[in-house]
Design the sequence.
């Protein structure tokens, strides 16, 4: 099938490459010339395991190409729109500028029978509005939310755990659903749930999923706050409640909290949309979810201050991790970088390291010092803050080796990723998040 993918960021680039890998003829389109040049050379403009191989394979096969020219969308039967919907400056609502611009630029190239599949995370009600603009072309708008996780994006795109599609009622919607089914044939053939629904439900599925995940993380972080004043251990608590299948252990990782380009802005946009709909009380709890999450960053910083005797001024602090989570170079709303910036503001000499995200972090926060190498980062440090649980820091970092490099023997484990007993027995003062 001939496919166009508009927007070649984390979502679109992976989607385009994945579609080519399952046999479609794909053109990826983006306004950013640098991104397009890199992708055309088979280089991923961001770190995503498996993507470079998929790009190389697609380009080599001739099924995958990239361009800045939107006219290249002409002739595709299905057009995926995967542009960003960031938080508006100074507001909680989502910024739909890129979605609107992408659609406007696509309209002249749509033919009757074409399908437009929106993948961007949008406020509920957006698709219905966009559909009125698509209608005069004879094409059909559908909404196909994306649930991929950075770091696992290739796998999540090729083999998703469910497919959701919002369609208009009637024959056009049914035809569009059939076409989308054919596009995703490998997943559909193996029995992946394919939920065809209305626009509003499809839009809400995405924000509801992210709101639920964020709530689960903040729930366990709230328990961490209680654990901290009672001497309980939140990691054992999470293990114990996680054995209940109705609860499950995943996303009960207490620590410095969630960040990234999705969870924080999606819960805020959801709250803003609910308010517009006159239903702010239905999601008031999301404000609390957000507040708990941000308090954990304060807590991590406070732990460093307390561990260093009440002030970090003039102290050297190594921050392990800059990405918002491992297996990603994404520093958008990264709790790790936020903590590093705050410690720097309090007068600490902060050295940040990350296996993948140093360049991105440096661009956003040039005032911090960076080390490409973990050992260089911790050398002479008075304290270490583990902020992103890469294996290099959690499994492959022996306390005896750390002791040979650092000045102090203080480790603050912002992800509860280290074994406290191992570090303590090596002479370190260990502080976890919600652990005694
Ligand atoms: C998320 C959703 O998981 C995905 O389905 C959606 O499509 C996009 O948003 P992503 O932003 O890639 O994906 O990251 P995710 O793996 O969900 O982690 C989000 C944040 O939560 C990270 O900062 C992570 O460190 C944090 N987290 C996750 C915790 O603090 N504790 C946990 O137990 C799990």
Sequence:
């Amino acid at each position: 099938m001939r496919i166009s993918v508009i927007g070649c960021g984390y979502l679109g680039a992976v989607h385009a490459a994945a579609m080519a890998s399952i046999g479609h003829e794909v053109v990826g389109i983006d306004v950013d010339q640098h991104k397009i040049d890199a992708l055309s050379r088979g280089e991923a403009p961001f770190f995503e395991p498996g993507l470079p191989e998929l790009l190389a394979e697609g380009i080599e096969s001739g099924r995958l190409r990239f361009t800045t020219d939107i006219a290249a969308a002409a002739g595709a039967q299905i057009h995926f729109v995967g542009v960003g919907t960031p938080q508006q400056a100074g507001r909680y609502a989502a910024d739909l500028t890129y979605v609107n611009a992408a659609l406007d630029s696509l309209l002249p190239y749509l033919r009757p029978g074409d399908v437009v599949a929106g993948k961007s995370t949008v406020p509920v009600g957006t698709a219905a509005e966009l559909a009125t603009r698509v209608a005069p072309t004879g094409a059909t708008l559908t909404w196909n939310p994306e649930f991929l996780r950075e770091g696992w994006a290739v796998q999540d795109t090729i083999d998703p755990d469910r497919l959701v599609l919002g369609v208009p009622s009637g024959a056009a919607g049914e035809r569009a659903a059939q076409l989308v089914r054919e596009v995703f044939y490998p997943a559909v053939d193996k029995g992946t749930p394919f939920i065809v629904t209305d626009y509003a439900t499809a839009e809400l599925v995405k924000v509801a999923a992210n709101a639920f995940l964020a709530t689960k993380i903040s729930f366990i972080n709230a328990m961490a706050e209680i654990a901290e004043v009672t001497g309980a251990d939140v990691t054992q608590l999470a293990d114990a409640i996680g054995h209940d299948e109705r609860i499950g252990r995943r996303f009960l990782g207490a620590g410095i909290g969630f960040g990234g380009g999705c969870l924080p802005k999606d819960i805020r946009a959801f709250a803003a949309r609910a308010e517009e709909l006159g239903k702010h009380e239905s999601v008031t709890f999301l404000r609390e979810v957000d507040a708990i999450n941000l308090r954990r960053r304060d807590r991590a910083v406070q732990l460093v201050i307390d561990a260093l005797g009440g002030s970090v001024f003039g102290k050297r602090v190594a921050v392990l991790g800059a990405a918002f989570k491992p297996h990603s170079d994404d520093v958008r709303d990264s709790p790790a970088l936020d903590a590093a910036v705050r410690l720097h503001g309090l007068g600490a000499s902060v050295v940040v390291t990350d296996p993948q995200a140093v360049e991105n972090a440096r661009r956003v926060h040039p005032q911090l010092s960076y080390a490409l190498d973990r050992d260089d980062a911790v050398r002479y440090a008075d304290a270490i803050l583990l902020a992103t649980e890469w294996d290099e820091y959690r499994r492959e970092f022996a306390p005896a080796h750390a002791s040979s490099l650092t000045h102090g023997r203080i480790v603050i484990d912002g992800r509860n990723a280290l074994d406290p007993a191992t570090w303590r027995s090596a002479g370190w003062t260990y502080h976890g998040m919600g652990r005694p």
Observations:
- The CA atoms of residues 92 and 268 lie 5 Å apart.
